[in-house]
């Protein structure tokens, strides 16, 4: 099965090819191709996530490090210039993606139901199960009504 989640306006010539299970996410003018071994190209920002065997390392122009590793459990660590650290860990299936825009609640279907909440700079997609841990230097994270909520502390 293939799930494509689009943030922002859809690129007219967007192509999404896959073998097995693949999730393509793009912000702005981004294109993701999956041909045997995955190849990721981006104009603005792009994160390619593979549900199953996954090894994904992405360093974006905003000096943000996005590291994903898959070992029995999928563990996603996201560290960025906002001095916040997020650790998302689930026992079942998990897809974590980074986007740079605030987007309203989005619900999709994928091996059950994704409940996606875009807040600030972090997006977590979770399927069925919800076991989550958050570590933040600034900001407060919590699970509310099954959604990930992040409220940044206001500073003058």
Strand-and-helix sequence, N→C?
EEEEEEEEEEEEEEEE
What is the CA-CA span between the terminal residues?
47 Å
Mean pLDDT score: 33
Strand content: over 45%
List the uncertain runs.
1-156
**Strand arrangement across the biggest beta sheet:** 6-7-8-9-14
Structural class: mainly beta
The major beta sheet can be summarized as: 5 strands, antiparallel
Number of strands: 16
The coarse silhouette is globular
Helix content: under 10%
**How many structural domains in the coordinates?**
1
Rg, Å, rounded: 15 Å
Summed up, the helix count is 0
Question: What does this protein look like?
Answer:
The chain crosses the membrane at residues 18-37, 44-67. Keywords: Membrane, Transmembrane, Transmembrane helix. There is one protein chain. This protein is mainly beta and 156 residues long. The protein has one domain (2-151). Helices cover 0% and strands 59% of the residues. It is built from no helices and 16 strands. It has strands at 2-7, 22-27, 30-35, 37-42, 45-49, 55-60, 64-71, 73-79, 85-90, 93-98, 106-109, 113-119, 122-127, 133-135, 140-144, 147-151. The strands form 5 sheets. It has a 5-stranded antiparallel beta sheet, with no helix packed on it.
Please describe the structure with a list of short key phrases separated by commas or semicolons.
single chain, 156 residues, mainly beta, 5-stranded antiparallel sheet, globular, disordered N terminus
Describe the secondary-structure layout.
Layout: E1 2-7, E2 22-27, E3 30-35, E4 37-42, E5 45-49, E6 55-60, E7 64-71, E8 73-79, E9 85-90, E10 93-98, E11 106-109, E12 113-119, E13 122-127, E14 133-135, E15 140-144, E16 147-151
Parallel strand pairs: 1-2
Antiparallel strand pairs: 2-5, 3-4, 6-7, 7-8, 8-9, 9-14, 10-13, 11-12, 12-13, 15-16
């Amino acid at each position: 099965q293939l799930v494509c989640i689009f943030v922002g306006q859809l690129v007219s010539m967007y192509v999404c090819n896959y073998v097995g299970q693949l999730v393509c996410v793009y912000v702005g003018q981004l294109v993701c191709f999956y041909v045997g071994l995955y190849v990721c190209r981006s104009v603005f920002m792009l994160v390619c996530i593979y549900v199953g065997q996954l090894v994904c390392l992405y360093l974006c122009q905003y000096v943000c490090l996005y590291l994903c590793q898959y070992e029995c459990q999928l563990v996603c660590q996201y560290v960025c210039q906002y001095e916040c650290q997020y650790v998302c860990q689930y026992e079942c299936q998990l897809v974590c993606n980074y986007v740079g825009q605030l987007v309203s609640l989005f619900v999709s279907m994928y091996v059950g139901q994704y409940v996606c909440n875009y807040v600030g700079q972090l997006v977590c997609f979770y399927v069925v199960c919800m076991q989550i841990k958050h570590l933040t230097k600034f900001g407060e994270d919590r699970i509310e009504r099954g959604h990930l909520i992040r409220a940044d502390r206001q500073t003058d």
